[in-house]
Amino acid sequence: MRTRLILLLLPLLILTGCQAVQTTEGGAVGVDRKQYMLGGPSSVEVNKMAAQSYAKILAEARAKGVLNTDRQMLNRLRRISTHLIPEVTHFRPDARDWNWEVNLIKSEQINAGVLPGGKILFYTGIVDKLQLTDAEIAQIMGHEIAHALREHGREASSRAGASQLALQIGSALLGLEGGTQQIAGAAVQYGVMMPHSRSNEAEADLIGLELGARAGYKPEAAISLWQKMASASGGGPPEFLSTHPSPGGRIEALRDAIPRVRPLYEASTKR
Fold first, then answer.
1. Strand arrangement of the beta sheet that strand 112-115 belongs to
2. pLDDT score, position 19
3. Is there a contact between 136 and 130 (Cβ–Cβ < 8 Å)?
4. Which end is more exposed in the chain, N or C (fewer Cβ atoms within 10 Å of the end residue's Cβ)?
5. pLDDT in tens, 23-76
């Protein structure tokens, strides 16, 4: 009975004191989930810290002689970014004025990311190993840009802090000890944090799909991209215990969303 009460109280405790914000417009894909932030650094502060981290990553790569060594690939990435970045205004007008950068690290990693404030970083492995087309690169870049636009990193940090606060409150109110505290921790991890991480991924997929379509990249590239990703990963953990949607679920959701962005692709002057 006590454990059940904990599970019922945790979401309420976690949301207590959180501020509802809307970081982006919904777009044609309809991403309009309210986000909850509990204190912590502001967007400006997060962007500043991200810029410092990005500069450190670049400096370390430069010292190792692996920064921007493939000029042809770098130019390709930067060209694609010049098509995508102007489209961010449809979701978040202020993001157009971020200090955007695109850099490339020579590495076998199948990885890419966009730090808060528009700091784009690709690894050569993701392009070479997956043999990505420009449209597939645009889907990855758009997906990662979406995380930055939605401030998913700041949101996750806020939720982690709120979860710890909720557990402390729950412990004080309900006298949690030992195994019961572990159950409560698992409830937060799998019942609160992970589902929201999966929702963040789904949002990034949809916003990335729309950014790519508006920039003139064929929406079907999202399907072929994640098929390649699934093949390269060789499978993964069950969706319930993963922070990412299952490849099949992700592809199905993207396929369902393509009709919503096709008119944007057809109307794009960049095709």
1. 101-105, 119-123, 112-115
2. 62
3. yes
4. N
5. 899 999 999 888 777 766 778 888 888 899 999 999 999 999 999 999 999 999
Q: For residue 51, give the nearest of 102, 93, 99 by alpha carbon.
A: 99
Amino acid identity of residue 42, one-letter, is S
CA-to-CA separations, 226 to 202, 212, 253, in angstroms, rounded = 13, 15, 12
Residue 262 pLDDT more than 50? Answer: yes
CB distance 115 to 148 below 8 Å: yes
Question: What is the distance between the alpha carbons of residues 126 and 70, in angstroms, rounded to a whole number?
Answer: 13
The residues annotated as belonging to the active site are 144
**Bridge partners, residue 36, by sequence:** 20
DSSP 35-85: EEE-SS--HHHHHHHHHHHHHHHHHHHHHTT-BS--HHHHHHHHHHHHHHG
pLDDT score for 39:
62
Instruction: Name beta bridge partners: 236.
Output: none
In this prediction, residue 236 carries a pLDDT of 56
Q: Which two tokens stand for residue 129?
A: 């190993």
DSSP secondary structure string, 69-135? --HHHHHHHHHHHHHHGGGGGGT-GGGGGS--EEEEE--S---EEEETTTEEEEEHHHHHHHT--HH
**Three-state SS at 222:** helix
> How do the residues of the chain divide into helix, strand and coil, expressed in percent and rounded to 5?
65, 10, 25
Q: Is 67:103 a contact under the CB 8 Å cutoff?
A: yes
